[in-house]
Task: inverse folding
């Protein structure tokens, strides 16, 4: 099994990618979406997903069902990222690790959850910073026969080119994701979305 990840500046593009992953046959329980919600674009839905995640329960169990992963979106906070709308295993792991005091050092919940699932630490820092700055992260644990399809879906033209985004962050003095940093204000969120998205 391989972890495949894509960062999107636009939530709708990320949502479309989740739908494509589900249509490819990747189970809901293996897909996760985490979107910044600092500007409260998403109101609290009636799902108990956020409460269950904060209590350490897996979101995947709550999210499953005929409606797909996106029907289980819940509001929560991830240290260093701030308020997010999320569903799936990554959010449950990031919040559960923090709630259970498992997280130590500077890695933070989201970086630790990504690296534990096989994402390179340098990449995990860029993904976490991308969400912190207003982006949406889609991550899937994929069985070998579906890896190429998942990589194609998450590497589409509407996703962020990770290397270019890393270079842009570093050019502004960024050295890595800091879970102890103050959250961006709603006025600061979404600057990345104004950039041109292009992936291979």
Result:
């Amino acid at each position: 099994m391989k972890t495949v990840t894509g960062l999107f500046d636009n939530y709708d593009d990320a949502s479309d990618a989740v739908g494509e992953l589900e249509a490819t046959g990747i189970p809901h329980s293996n897909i996760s979406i985490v979107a910044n919600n600092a500007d409260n674009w998403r109101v609290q839905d009636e799902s108990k997903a956020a409460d269950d995640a904060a209590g350490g329960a897996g979101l995947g169990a709550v999210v499953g069902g005929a409606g797909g992963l996106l029907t289980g979106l819940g509001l929560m906070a991830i240290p260093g990222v701030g308020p997010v709308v999320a569903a799936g295993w990554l959010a449950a792991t990031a919040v559960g690790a923090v709630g259970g005091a498992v997280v130590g050092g500077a890695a933070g919940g989201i970086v630790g959850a990504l690296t534990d699932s096989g994402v390179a630490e340098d990449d995990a820092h860029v993904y976490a910073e991308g969400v912190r700055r207003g982006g949406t992260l889609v991550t899937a644990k994929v069985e070998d026969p579906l890896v190429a399809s998942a990589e194609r879906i998450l590497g589409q033209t509407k996703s962020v080119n990770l290397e270019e985004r890393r270079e842009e962050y570093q050019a502004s003095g960024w050295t890595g994701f800091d879970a102890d940093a103050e959250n961006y204000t709603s006025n600061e969120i979404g600057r990345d979305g104004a950039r041109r998205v292009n992936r291979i």
Observations:
- The chain is about 40% helix and 15% strand.
- The first strand starts at residue 2 and ends at 8.
